[in-house]
Amino acid sequence: MFPQCKVSISGLDPGSKYLVLMDVVPVDSSRYRWQSDRWDAVGKAEPRLPDRIYIHPDSPASGSHWMGRSVSFHRVKLTNNTLDSQGHIILHSLHRYQPRFHVVQASDVYSRRWGGCSSFSFPETPFITVTAYQNERVSPSRPVTMHYPFSFCTYLSMLLTLSHCCFLF
């Protein structure tokens, strides 16, 4: 997932164990298209796909572990393949989504006894998914510049604000 999500966590009990999770939910019920140098809603969204949750690989860990550093979600994988069996988060292309982060008090991922759960989302993080570049000024230069879309986006990240970024599968 580009750009990757990183969060800082505070206010946990340093000695308790916690799971840190992420999911991605639709922002609205529209489908989008890039036209006239902007994203426009052009129709109704496709039916919502089953939700998948990404469990941070450090889970479960102590509160002091989570509060001691930024928590990176750089390993999250997105796909538009509805038959995915790898556990990737499945999203529709050209739809708007919002990452959500969850902190759950639990000593084991498979425990039936989870404690309290806090969920967070941030107004800066909605994005539109794309499977191909939607900007003609970007598309022709991409194959010459870089071999993979995520590499080219890394280069472009300095030029784009987060509100204009798109996540690529």
UniProtKB/TrEMBL annotation:
Its GO CC terms are: chromatin; nucleus
A single Pfam family, by name?
A: T-box
Matching SUPFAM superfamilies, A to Z? p53-like transcription factors
Q: Which UniProt keywords apply?
A: Developmental protein, DNA-binding, Nucleus, Transcription, Transcription regulation
Kindly list the organism's lineage. Eukaryota, Metazoa, Chordata, Craniata, Vertebrata
Annotated compartments? Nucleus
Extract the GO molecular function terms from the UniProt entry. Answer: DNA-binding transcription factor activity, RNA polymerase II-specific; RNA polymerase II cis-regulatory region sequence-specific DNA binding
Q: What is its main location?
A: nucleus
Q: Which PANTHER family match?
A: T-BOX PROTEIN-RELATED, T-BOX TRANSCRIPTION FACTOR TBX6
GO BP field: cell fate specification; positive regulation of DNA-templated transcription
Q: Known InterPro entries for this protein?
A: p53-like_TF_DNA-bd_sf, T-box_DNA-bd, T-box_sf, TF_T-box, TF_T-box_CS
The protein depicted here goes by the name T-box transcription factor TBX6
According to the entry, every stretch annotated as the T-box domain falls at 1-139
Q: Which PROSITE patterns match?
A: TBOX_2, TBOX_3
